[in-house]
Amino acid sequence: MLSALLYLRLTSLKNWLRMRLLRLKQPKYLAGAIVGAAYFWFFFFRHSFGETDAPGGAVRRRALHQAGQSLQDAGLTLPTDFGGLPIVIGALVLLVVITLVWVFSLERASLGFTEAEIAFLFPAPITRRGLVHFRLIDAQLRNLIGALFMTLFSNRWMFIGGSPLTHAVGWWLLFTAFNLHLTGVRFTLSRLADAGVGTWRRRAIVPLIPIAVIAATLALRPADQRWVDLTAPDFGATLEKWFLGVTGSAPLSWLIAPGKFLLGPFFADSGRAFLWAIGPAAVVIWAHYVWVVRSIVSFEDGSIVRAEKRAAVISAMRDGKRLGRAPTKGRKPPFVLASTGRPELAFLWKNLLGTWTWLNPRTWAWCALAIVGVTAWVHAHPEWRGALIAAGPIALILAGYALLIGPQLARQDIRSDLVNADLLKTYPLPGWQIVLGELLAPTAILTGVLWLLLLAAAVSFQPGPRAFGFLAPALRDFVRACLAPAARTLLTLCLATLVPLIVALQLFVPNAAALVFPAWFQATRQRAGGGGIDIMGQRLIFFFGQFLTMLIALLPALLSGAVTVWLACFVFPLPPIAGVWLAAVGVLMVLVGELWLGLWFLGGRFERLDLSSELRP
Amino acid sequence: MIEVLALSKRYGDFPAVTDLSFSARPGEVLGLVGPNGAGKTTTLRCLAGIIPATSGTVRLAGHDIAQNPVAAKRNLAFFPDEPRLFDYLTVRQHLNFVARIYGVANYEALAQPLLEELEIADKADELPGALSRGMKQKLAIACGLLHGPSVMFFDEPLTGLDPLGIRRMKDSILKRARAGATIVLSSHLLHLLEEVCSHVLILKKGRKIADGSLAEVSAQFSNGETGVSLEEIFMRATGGSEN
User: Distance (Å) from the C-alpha of residue A333 to the closest C-alpha of chain B?
Assistant: First the structure.
């Protein structure tokens, strides 16, 4: 039986690899694979083939192991005690994770079979234990891949000792034990549920166990060692000593011992220590295996439900839809949509319906009022004015981030509607109107956010007398004049006017990418069955492409503004207010021109879009 | 009225549809049949202006879909096999949205009878996530019919419907045809086509094998026999295989 199951897995793996290699014939996957491989080389593999120990690693290793060595000197110790602080922290982290698993796992036992595996294997003459073994063996493949990746990621931690091989084995042991533990928990909870132990009772009791153990450990320690001495001159060393003392005392030491055994091979700093540590870790794994096999319960129903959910998620990802269950309750529309009028507003209305309910003008007005109110209060209380010094720059920095990252988060536009492209193309609208309509919702949302941040910056910015001292005198005077109260209001209004256009331009780039390179865009969205180094490379190409295009698009507007300011304020000596105003008009015209050109181009592109052709393998 | 002249669609080197010409008049229901991969869906998508044809002309209600797509699309409704709906719009909000897109003034007066006819009036405030497959199909149909199209394309309209839904769908198609709409529908269910269609167009590997009224096509492949079913005609026309 196991040979058939192995055949299934190995054949599937072979075909999967073959398919991945074959698709490299397509330029989009080949380019992605090259960029992805380059990324891995520069960030991970390069270190493996070059310097294996970070500077100062030996010093750090000595320091980290010092506490462990002191325990060893004190008397009989386990091999894992040599690891000192890191291994204890690791074991405690494992304890927390395992506790959370016991608290949050569902009762119904299930194993991660696919729908196809269920269809073929469940009716087949295979025992329940055989199916469990199949899952456990199957999990080993994922464990090995996971261990490989984690070894790459943890390659820079070589200062803790060991080699890539011992780290890989360490990760593998950890993943295997965790996988077995999860399965064991599911079976055990199913049994407990059958025995009448309800979810909430279990959730109340389980966290009490580690808490009680820690309390008992502290209680059993000598009174003068029970708590860390906060007044100790060398607090760091005192804390470490106390921590190792507590975690090394029973009964807490018993509770974290399995975790320490498991982590032992990973933290082993020599071949001998590794061999010495592998035995206890194997015992933990074996105990888990025995636990799982002896606690097998009916898992078929749960597995079917789980497989169906997983299939639905994969299907949603392939269709480019959002993950999770589709909403079932409607919400109040953001505004009343008349049946006649500009059709673009229908897209705004529709896409706003897909956002959070609290994203509305009322929330915005309350936020604006709060900003103005708080700032006015602070201005009225001189002792608090210091808090405002950082508020202005922070608001501007946040605005920059919102402008940069916002378009990646606010995706209620063509990107989310590409899946409905067929439907949209039947509408009696020219392409540019559909594109414009689709851009309105995220533009409105991000504009609202940026206006709030701009408002916060405007009302709280209070440059000191020596501010902008690093600028040339003429430019410094100009900036200071612009930030004087009256000019600052005009500057804020000018920026507020430009914000929707800049946001639209920012959104334009990822939407253009979705329309101009739909096959690439779709490929980067399809995680299910579409992951891999080539897809990761495609995402990197997309990100840098968008960043570069955005910079190029903003350059003419920035140049126009700079030239206008220079001409207005430095060649013709107009007042700074006039310079700002003229520059804003110039920037506005450039941005409007760019957007118009963009809409014209993307509208045409949308009209010619043939997804079926683009996505043909 | 649908007029198709020398329509071709290629995907790279692959010819999905080749040199297809036919016409359908108001009141006619044209059944598009063919084996898997014959080009039925591609043809429908080209006719509806969803994908651009590689060459050829498609005129809907007198408007060239390539030259004057907006005017042509004002007259058409396309119903895909899988209803495409917006997750966050209720049934009523879908109709509101479509009304604005097509500029249907006073749409409420049209929407309510439509919802009642399709028996989804009681679901007006539900989101698609709360609707069954059949209900979603009905909502997609309501959205398509709201602006009173004179040309309709149905791609596998009976997929996922229960027997009652199939009956209602057939009645609905015939009702629109009697009202003067020109309808093209593709389906593998030949008995449905026999009941609903006045005309039939058989495709194979992207090429037209036959078209005309049911009687005409039947006569072409019956070899003088009487009472030959559409299924038998289909088998004879296509040679009983996809290739």
Answer: 8
List of E strands, A452-584: none
Nearest to A595 by CA among A562, A539, A553, A547: A553
**Rg of the Cα trace of chain B?**
18
A251-280 burial: b if 16+ Cβ within 10 Å, else e: ebbebbbbbbbbbbbbbbbeeebbebbbeb
Q: By CA distance, what is B103's nearest residue in A? A: A340
**Quick check: A428 and B126 CB within 8 A?**
no
Burial A563-590 (b: 16+ CB within 10 A, else e): ebbeebbeeeebebbebbbbbbebbbeb
Q: What is the dihedral of CA B14, B20, B26, B31, to 10 degrees?
A: -60
Chain B residues closer than 8 Å to A428 by CB: 69-74, 101-102
The answer to pTM > 0.90 is no
Q: Answer for the pair A315, A114: CB distance below 8 angstroms, yes or no.
A: no
What DSSP assignment string belongs to A151-178? HHHGGGGGGGS--HHHHHHHHHHHHHHH
Amino acid at A49: F
Comparing CB atoms, the residue among A346, A349, A428 nearest residue B70 is A428
CB contact under 8 A, B51 and A612: yes
Distance from A325 to chain B by nearest Cα, in Å? 8
Q: Where are the domains of chain A?
A: 51-110+139-301, 348-614
In three-state secondary structure terms, A472 is coil
Half-sphere exposure of A578 (CA within 13 A, CB side): 9
CA distance B221 to chain A (A): 34
A315 alpha carbon, distance to own chain's centre: 22
- Inter-chain contact A326–B127, Cβ cutoff 8 Å? yes
pLDDT digits (tens, 9 = 90+) for B143-178: 999 999 999 999 988 877 788 888 888 888 999 999
**Please, which residues 62-101 of chain B have a Cβ atom closer than 8 Å to chain A?**
69-74, 76-78, 80, 84, 86-90, 93, 96-97, 99-101
Q: What would the pLDDT profile of B213-237 be if each residue is shown by its tens digit?
A: 988 888 888 777 777 788 888 888 8
Q: Does the beta-carbon distance from A340 to B130 stay under 8 Å?
A: no
- Measured at the CA of A355, the angle between CA A352 and CA A358, to 5 degrees, comes to 100
B51 to chain A, closest Cα gap in Å:
5
Contact criterion met (CB below 8 Å) for B54 and B19: no
Query: CA–CA separation, A437 vs A554, rounded Å?
Result: 22
Radius of gyration of chain A (CA): 31
The list of chain A residues with pLDDT below 70 reads 1-2, 44-83, 107-109, 124, 155-162, 314-328, 463-465, 467, 520-531, 611-617
Packing angle between helix A128-153 and helix A2-22, nearest 10 degrees? 40
Residue with tokens 């991000």: A446
Q: Which residues of A touch B74 (CB under 8 A)?
A: 428
Which of A348, A412, A423 is the best mutation test for B, with the most CBs of B within 10 A? A423
Q: Where in chain B is the domain with CATH 3.40.50.300?
A: 1-75+152-243
Which CATH topology does B1-75+152-243 take?
Rossmann fold (3.40.50)
Instruction: Please give the torsion angle defined by the CA atoms of residues A400, A405, A411 and A413, in that order, rounded to the nearest 10 degrees.
Output: 50
Burial code (b: 16+ CB inside 10 Å, e: under 16) for B3-23 equals: bbeebbbbeeeebbbbebebe
The reply to whether residue B73 touches residue A341, judged by beta carbons under 8 angstroms, is: no
Strands B76-79 and B2-11, bridge-based pairing = unpaired
Contact flag B99-A610 (C-beta cutoff 8 Å):
no
- Chain B, residues 118-177, CB within 8 A of chain A, namely 125-130
CA atoms in the 13 A half-sphere facing the CB of A118: 18
What was the ipTM of the complex prediction?
0.84
